[in-house]
């Protein structure tokens, strides 16, 4: 076999299958209760609405446009609909500020490509979305911890970035019901983040993938909305908002979007022309049709289902977790984050759990840019019913209880 390593670019060395992904392959066994995948429940997809949307596209005058190449910015009626949705959450923008991507994951790749030269610093929360680290890694960044409690100074960030051989370019965060923690960043911390970004003169990448999935509590304005309020209009802002239809409608269509000031959008359009020309025309049309007709009902339906599962998971954790374990109480999204006593190892626990208790989760260290915090776990409640959640958490509590007792 050819030795490819010296032919591959240096950036490819940062692209590795994680041991955790390997472990998760074991999940294909049918008798496992899985809290591992952070994916939407397919039973909640709007099947009929999509069936009707595709049927009407195929039988109507738009069929050729739907099957033809189209513009890189995205399908205009979908972008116009998004302008209205954004206004509802305080993001006043024009249609030219909205850019359609192939899932919000593509936006993360493009933003990595746009901002990071090798050794530049990306500020990310500790932990952060694993897919963001994977997207940015290809551009050879250094990561530094984005502190949301204000205990790091701009000078400190600047010095660390210079030592690493570059400059701080952006702060990335998912402020609503984050993957993996389920936590929400409060308004004061969002304002502080904007202060920091202004001082460092960097971009803020706001990942709104779960923004629609609030089950209780008061909505917090998006960072971009706060930035617009400060600066008097989107063109003066430094925040780039990434959104997705994956969690609300269906991820298989691969339709996401970016909302930002025009200089950023123009660059993203050029990147898209080079990368894939445009996102699937027909899927954008179908998403536009479905969004225009049933979006509020669909969001209400999934919120009802997921909030019941969240409640079941929190109740089961309170009932079955041993002393020494703590967990987040998310107001939305798909995840609960569990912290075990120091010294415990989530990856070891997973191997054990799959064998003995047949329960799966994701060990938390994969979500840390420095691979630390072995004693954490991500549990997703999106795809299990309430009875499975109770049973799975009971088994997990038993396993963790034994591990804690052995370690004592
Ligand atoms: C925080 C976050 N951002 C982005 C994505 C990517 O989603 P998509 O590309 O399907 O829009 C995900 C998917 O799980 C996610 O959890």
Describe the structure.
There is one protein chain. With 408 residues, the chain is of the alpha/beta class. 44% of the residues lie in helices and 12% in strands. The strands form three sheets. A seven-stranded mixed sheet has the order 2-8-7-6-5-3-4, with helices on both faces. Helix 2 (47-59) packs antiparallel against helix 11, helix 5 crosses helix 6 and helix 5 crosses helix 10. Pyridoxal-5'-phosphate binds at residues 38, 103-105, 129, 131, 174, 179, 207, 209, 244, 246, 251, 256.
The total of helices stands at 13
What class, by secondary structure content?
alpha/beta
Bound heterogens, unique? pyridoxal-5'-phosphate
**What oligomeric arrangement do these chains adopt?**
single chain
Shape: globular
Estimate the mean pLDDT confidence: 95
Helix proportion: 40-55%
Q: Tell me the major beta sheet.
A: 7 strands, mixed
pLDDT < 50 stretches? none
Strand content: 5-15%
Radius of gyration, CA atoms, in whole angstroms: 22 Å
Order of helices and strands: HEHHHEHEHEHEHEHEEHHEEHEEEH
Strand order of the largest sheet: 2-8-7-6-5-3-4
N/C terminus separation = 50 Å
Number of strands: 13
């Amino acid at each position: 076999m050819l030795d490819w390593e010296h032919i591959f670019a240096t950036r490819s060395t940062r692209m590795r299958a994680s041991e955790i992904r390997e472990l998760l392959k074991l999940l294909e066994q049918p008798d496992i209760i899985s809290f591992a995948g952070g994916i939407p429940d397919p039973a909640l997809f709007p099947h009929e609405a999509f069936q009707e949307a595709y049927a009407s596209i195929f039988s109507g005058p738009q069929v050729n446009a739907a099957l033809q190449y189209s513009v890189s910015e995205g399908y205009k009626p979908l972008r116009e609909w998004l302008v209205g949705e954004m206004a509802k959450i305080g993001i006043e923008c024009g249609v030219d500020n909205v850019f359609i991507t192939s899932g919000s994951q593509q936006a993360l790749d493009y933003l990595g490509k746009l901002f990071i030269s090798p050794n530049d610093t990306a500020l990310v929360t500790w932990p952060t979305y694993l897919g963001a680290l994977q997207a940015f890694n290809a551009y050879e960044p250094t990561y530094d911890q984005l502190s949301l409690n204000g205990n790091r100074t701009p000078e400190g960030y600047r010095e660390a970035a210079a030592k690493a051989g570059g400059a701080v370019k952006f702060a990335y965060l998912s402020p609503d019901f984050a993957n993996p923690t389920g936590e929400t960043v409060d308004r004061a911390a969002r304002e502080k983040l904007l202060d920091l970004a202004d001082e460092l003169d960097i971009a803020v990448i706001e990942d709104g993938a779960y923004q629609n999935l609030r089950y209780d509590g008061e909505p917090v304005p998006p960072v971009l909305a706060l930035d617009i309020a400060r600066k008097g209009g989107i063109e003066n802002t430094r925040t780039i908002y990434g959104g997705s239809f994956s969690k609300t409608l269906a991820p298989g269509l691969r339709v996401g979007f970016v909302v930002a000031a025009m200089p950023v959008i123009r660059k993203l359009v050029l990147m898209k022309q080079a990368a894939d020309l445009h996102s699937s025309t027909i899927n954008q049309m179908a998403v536009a049709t479905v969004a225009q007709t049933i979006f509020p009902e669909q969001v209400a339906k999934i919120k009802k289902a997921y909030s019941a599962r969240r409640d079941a998971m929190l109740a089961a954790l309170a009932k079955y977790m041993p002393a020494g374990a703590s967990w987040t109480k998310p107001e939305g999204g798909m995840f609960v984050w569990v912290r075990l006593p120091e010294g415990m190892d989530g990856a070891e626990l997973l191997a054990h759990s799959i064998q003995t208790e047949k329960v799966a989760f994701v060990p938390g260290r994969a979500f840390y840019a420095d691979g630390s915090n072995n004693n954490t776990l991500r549990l997703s409640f999106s795809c299990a019913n309430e009875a499975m959640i109770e049973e799975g958490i009971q088994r997990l509590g038993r396993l963790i209880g034994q591990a804690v007792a052995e370690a004592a």
